[in-house]
Write a structure and sequence with these properties.
This protein is an alpha/beta fold. It has a single domain, classed as Rossmann fold (3-Layer(aba) Sandwich), CATH 3.40.50. Strands 1, 4, 5, 6, 7, 8, 10 and 12 form an 8-stranded mixed β-sheet that branches. It has a 3-stranded parallel β-sheet with strand order 9-11-13. The chain has a two-stranded antiparallel sheet with strand order 2-3. The N and C termini lie far apart (43 Å). Bound molecules: uracil (URA). The site of uracil has 9 residues, from helix 6.
Length: 231
């Protein structure tokens, strides 16, 4: 199994119950991301700082998630000479946050790719049936099928919402879809891989697993509440 350079080798890869050593899983091991994820986890981090950290981490992770954008050569007249220089070529990007926590990741990502369009998808997990998701809102760019799509959510827990969002976006004809989260649980990674083996997952940390309430442990708690100060 190939392990890409982005995969942190010391983050419990190879747990017995889940095979996390998948080339489609990228754990961003950059020290700035790791440091900021630690600050995010701290229960004493308030909503303002939490929002700022989510935005900063998202910007750094977007840098990794866009590493494979194709380039083309152009000629640029500098004040001195003509430079053969690179610009991004080809398809454009769309970010699709899963409401509500995924919203917090959009500003940071947009700071790097201001021309991207943003779709929104609102999904909640059915409390009576943890395996099913209910969609309450969906507004996607009209040309999303011509764009490379990066779905954002702070937590990849069971994977139910992520799988629903990917399915919905694939139905539009979009075929380049990545999923970017800050903290992932092995259960969610495995579910997403099984449902959509082609979708690359970018995360800042791979945690131990889910507790009985389906929260990621150790995790960050309820990301939406911490982001918006609702608890
Ligand atoms: N959603 C959250 O906000 N936190 C978790 O731990 C899992 C899902």
């Amino acid at each position: 199994m190939k392990i890409t350079a982005d995969i942190t080798k010391n983050q419990n890869i190879g747990r017995k119950e889940y095979n996390m050593a998948n080339e489609k899983l990228h754990i961003c091991n950059h020290p700035l991301v790791q440091h900021k994820v630690s600050l995010l986890r701290d229960k004493n981090t308030g909503a303002k700082e939490f929002r700022e950290l989510v935005s900063e981490i998202s910007m750094l992770m977007c840098y990794e998630a866009t590493r494979d954008l194709p380039l083309k050569k152009v000629q640029i007249q500098t004040p001195i000479a003509i430079a053969e220089s690179n610009v991004i070529s080809g398809r454009k990007l769309a970010f699709v946050p899963i409401l509500r926590a995924g919203l917090g990741m959009v500003d940071g990502a947009m700071a790097l790719v201001p021309a991207a369009k943003v779709g929104h998808i609102g999904i909640y997990r059915d409390k009576a049936n943890s395996n099913s998701a209910a969609e309450y809102y969906c507004k996607l760019p009209f040309d999303i099928n011509e764009r490379d799509v990066i779905i954002t959510d702070i937590m990849l827990a069971t994977g139910v919402s992520a799988i629903h969002a990917i399915k919905k976006i694939k139905e539009t004809g979009a075929h380049s879809i990545k999923f970017m989260c800050i903290v992932a649980a092995p259960e969610g990674v495995e579910a997403l891989h099984n449902a959509f083996p082609d979708v690359e997952i970018y995360c800042g940390a791979l945690d131990d697993g889910l507790n009985e309430d389906l929260y990621i442990t150790p995790g960050v708690g309820d990301a939406g509440d911490r982001l918006f100060g609702t608890k």
